Amino acid sequence: MAYDLKTAEGPVWDADGKLYFTEIFAHQVHEYTIKSGKFRIIRKDSGGSNGMALDSQNRLLMCEMLGKRLVRREHDGTIVSLWEANHEGKGGPNDVVVSSNGNVYFTMPRHQTVYRMTKDDKVETFIKDLPGINGVKLSLDETTLFVTEYRDRKVHAFPINDHTGTAGPGRLFAVIKTEGLEHGADGMAVDALDQLYVCCLGGIWILNKEGHPVDFISLPDEKVTNCAFAGNDFDTLFITTQQGLFSAKRR
Q1: Are residues 136 and 146 in contact, defined by beta-carbon separation less than 8 angstroms?
Q2: Residue 143 carries which DSSP code?
Q3: Is 38 exposed, middle or buried (CB count within 10 Å of its CB: 0-12, 13-18, 19+)?
Q4: Extended strands (E) in 85-212
Q5: Most CB contacts within 10 A, which of 3, 142, 246, 248?
């Protein structure tokens, strides 16, 4: 679909028929209209935006990895800063997910922390002391928060209560085993069967509810960064890699 990109990331599906994704090192955010097949840039100078999510008002939240802040894109294109890490050391937020209640969970790798932002934009530490954190995703019933540990290619599962803002002790859900050391466990997606899709070097591992691999989407030689389901029946999986944007039909 698109290639020679400068690290594509953060695919997000909009029910209006549009897919959004970032190009981190080109500092751009793209919009792809599925029906027309057309691309357009909706944001330049994006601060190296990485992971993205849509909030309850259909506004894009963006993790500015290089800008070191979490921002929101209003419907008129205005960018509003929600949280900044400039005064708290190096690095910026990496990935983000929004619950049906409107609470936001985002990862901050250099802090080894998952933060939670409530509906009134209050940010609090949610999970801490988890080295190498990267991607974040909620289970279908939103009672489990999955977090990837990039370098060691681990997936952790935390029981959570989205209403009270509490998390229980995490457990090791899965370890992705693949050859090659130059790219780790990254973004994730969840399908209608509550299976977890974990992006890594060479493809996407599909894990069942027990964390066991049940299938694999192979993308040889690709450093897969993230993925998201789209389409009227969520039957298309859009996949970003360090080089491009791909799509695959769900089996």
Answers
A1: yes
A2: S
A3: exposed
A4: 96-98, 104-108, 113-117, 123-127, 133-138, 144-149, 154-161, 166-167, 171-175, 188-190, 196-207
A5: 246
- Count of CB atoms situated within 10 Å of the CB of 51: 28
Query: What does the buried/exposed string (b/e) look like for 185-216 if buried means 16 or more CB atoms within 10 Å of the residue's CB?
Result: bbbbbbeeeeebbbbbbbbbbbbeeeeeeeee
Q: What share of the chain is helix, strand, coil (3-state, %, to 5)?
A: 5, 55, 40
Residue pair 247/1 in contact by the 8 Å Cβ criterion = yes
163-195 pLDDT tens trace = 999 999 999 999 998 877 778 999 999 999 999
Asked if 148 and 132 count as a contact pair (C-beta separation under 8 A), the reply is: no
CA atoms of 238 and 211, how far apart (whole Å) = 22
| DSSP-assigned letter for residue 1 | -
Residue 67: phi, psi to the nearest 5?
Answer: -80, -10
Q: How far is it, in rounded angstroms, from Cα 193 to Cα 189?
A: 11
By the 8 A CB rule, do 237 and 229 touch? yes
